[in-house]
Amino acid sequence: MRVAVVGGGPGGLYAAALLKRLDPTREITVWERNAPDHTFGFGVVLSDETLGGIEHADPVVYEALRREFVRWDDIDIVHRGVRHTSGGHGFAALGRRRLLEILHERCRSLGVDLRFRTEAPHPARLTQEYDLVVAADGVHSATRAAHADAFRPVLTPHRCRYIWLAADFAFDAFRFEIAETEHGVMQLHGYPYAADASTVIVEMREEVWRAAGFDAGDESESDPRESVERCAKIFADALGGRPLKSNNSAWTTFRTVVNERWSHGNVVLLGDAAHTAHFSIGSGTKLAVEDALALAACLTEQPSLERALSAYEEERRPVVASTQRAARASLEWFENLGLHLHQPPRRFAFNLLTRSRRVTHDNLRLRDAHFTEAVEREFGCPPGTPPMFTPFRMRGLTLRNRVVVSPMDMYSATDGLPGDFHLVHLGARALGGAGLVMTEMVCVSPEGRITPGCTGLYTAGQADAWRRITDFVHTAAPGAAIGVQLGHSGRKGSTKLMWEGMDEPLPDGNWPLVAASPLPYKPGGRTPRELSRAQLTDLREQFAAAAWRAARVGFDLLELHCAHGYLLSGFLSPLTNRRTDAYGGSLAKRLRFPLEVFDAVRGVWPAERPMTVRISATDWAEGGTSADDAVEIARAFAAHGADAIDVSTGQVVADETPEFGRSYQTPFADRIRHEARVPVIAVGAISSWDDVNSLILAGRTDLCALGRPHLYDPNWTLHAAAEQGYTGAAAEWPAPYRAGSRPPRTGRTDAPKPRLTPLS
Question: How many other C-beta atoms can be found within 10 angstroms of the C-beta atom of residue 13?
């Protein structure tokens, strides 16, 4: 096999070495347009997991790396003159130039043809002359560009500028330092990579970079000395007054690279050519080296090149996608660093450490229990109490813990009446320990239902049925609160039950649809009528009447549903509100009717009981509600008396493109909490008690709403308490259940092990 490797970075070199080691008959050529010692950046960080893979695949390279590594455990976070240190993190780093030298030596010893200062032939020629072309030519990959129609790359620029520098001394920890300057917030990321050297990255938002004048004069020079000197002065305390140095350094903007495909014919992408992940989680070289390991293994294991490249992508894509999600969360946290500056320094440090969601409360407790316990004390956790089991107060309601059973439509009512199913469903979850149990969206009129199976609060009989449920919760599950979510389906109504065809129109028995504007939810779907002024008045009264009934039957909290494309949400989004009257146009006008409804409901809802509002913080569609809009929407509702904002996203338009992932909606809640200064409920793929503790303690949310986990386990909160060894009042087992508060015994696994070996 003849193999062409385009790009002499760590990923390309390691792939060449592995491929040659596994099969010495392979003819492998590496093209690198720069000199051997020409490299971008200074230090490289590798994880123990990556090093384990290197050790197994090539002990020679591993041993050479092991001798060079600088190892450390601590992370220092310096915020407003206060330094907090967290230990137990375990890093290993070495100089990038030395890493390349080790790989050069290994390639040469194996017989790889290294061609420096040489441009690779055109990709079309390489694909004809070689059996395999490995494109390891970086974020600006020419190979990828030549086959862009096949790879379909998407390059997303971000909002910060950064510059890669170095210092001639070793930090004694991985250091994050924040500088609040007259131009805005700047941050330093620094770590040692040799006994006498450290990498230093200075980063700031684009507008701060421009305001500070870094965009003037020297940004295109190979040695931007003025920028380097200014950065050294800004972070003089961190550097001890020492200078910084550059190495082909220039201010740049990070770009996230995603490719629809990683291989085309006999060409395969590797490292930054295939994907990038922000440097704040130290992942670029790590991912490239792991790509090389996987590619070499798949070429050995699979019977054909086609199968090998397919297996390589299948193996690596999920890992990379997970890393990119974590990197995106970290990147956005630093982009929005200003939101968190008001936090106490220790809690700020915890927030920074858990920003990517890969380091969590429980994980950090294992690494550094002393630091984590100090953050908990600062937050107000009593001894032995996890953050999720601290109380939270809204008006006259004190929730015993921070867990909310999220509103989930059950589609199991008859004529709007909740029945035995709803009693068991909601009652079981109240018995299961949650602080607040929310109903599904309860509709304010027959025409406001989503499906024939949706519940309502528009008749006295429905009110009586709900009273049965609230009485049960308050009697059988003392300490649990129950809330009602009021809404109207708008243009998304008159559809089949979810399991019969979600959002599909009923075959018969339809009712008329109304909405802000006459736009169907799905192409070919039913078109609603635009609401007249008189109908708006009627709807407002329907909401108020339902709220009055909700108060009479004993609900502890009321949530107004202004999300997911239902009627009130339809007024808020510019994609669904095309009105030209006083209720359409600017955001202030689009807010008018939802606020009128809120005021009408607040007017009949008891003053001592809290009200929340659920919103879609983004439509996940071009031209729709933006994160900036969401902050203004939250501010408006808070000004009218909302006690918290329940922050969801999407489901407003059928052609949305959401960015799913663990806790993927939490950044929107985080921003609203800090910018609008209103408590928030985070929701969306929060599935573990560790996530709940992490989000609460970091200050990204006040409450966490979980849906599917409570479908899987009605006793989710009680089990979370048991697994954490918590036995306090915030998660008290009902008396009839106390015998089950410990996990059942299982079969024994402690049989005696063989101890004596017969003599030979």
Answer: 28
Q: Are strands 75-79 and 82-86 parallel, antiparallel or unpaired?
A: antiparallel
Q: What is the pLDDT of residues 254-312, one digit of tens each?
A: 999 999 999 999 999 999 999 999 999 877 888 999 999 999 999 999 999 999 999 99
**Rounded Cα gap, residues 755 and 602, in angstroms:** 73
DSSP, residue by residue, 282-331: --HHHHHHHHHHHHHHHHHHSSSHHHHHHHHHHHHHHHHHHHHHHHHHHH
DSSP class of 508:
S
| Residue 436 three-state SS | strand
| CB-based contact 126:4 (threshold 8 Å) | yes
Give dist(CA 650, CA 492) in Å, integer: 14
Q: Which of 191, 458, 566, 726 is catalytic?
A: 566
Neighbouring CB atoms inside 10 A of 37's CB total 10
756: left (phi over 0), alpha (psi -120 to 50) or beta: beta
Q: Which residues contact 78 (CB under 8 A, 6 or more apart)?
A: 175, 176, 177, 178, 237, 238
**Looking at 397-517, which runs of residues are DSSP E strands?**
397-399, 403-405, 436-443, 481-487, 514-515
CB half-sphere exposure, 97, CA atoms < 13 A: 14
Q: What is the pTM of this model?
A: 0.90
The pairing of strands 245-246 and 174-181 is unpaired
Q: How big is the CA angle at 255 (ends 253 and 256), to the nearest 5 degrees? A: 155
Give the range among 103-112, 276-285, 446-455, 613-622 with minimum mean pLDDT.
276-285
Cβ neighbours for 462, distance < 8 A, ≥ 6 positions apart: 416, 417, 418, 455, 456, 549
Q: Which amino acid is at 268?
A: V
Burial of 554 (0-12, 13-18, 19+ CB in 10 A): middle
* Among 267, 252, 268, 366, residue whose Cα is nearest residue 313: 268
566 is catalytic: yes
CA atoms within 13 A on the CB side of 588: 0
Q: In Å, what is the CA distance from 106 to each residue of 18, 61, 453?
A: 10, 7, 68
Calculate helix-pair angle for 689-698, 716-723, nearest 10 degrees: 80
Strands 184-194, 263-264: parallel, antiparallel or unpaired by DSSP? unpaired
β-partners of residue 77 are 84, 176
Cα separation of 443 and 447, whole Å? 8
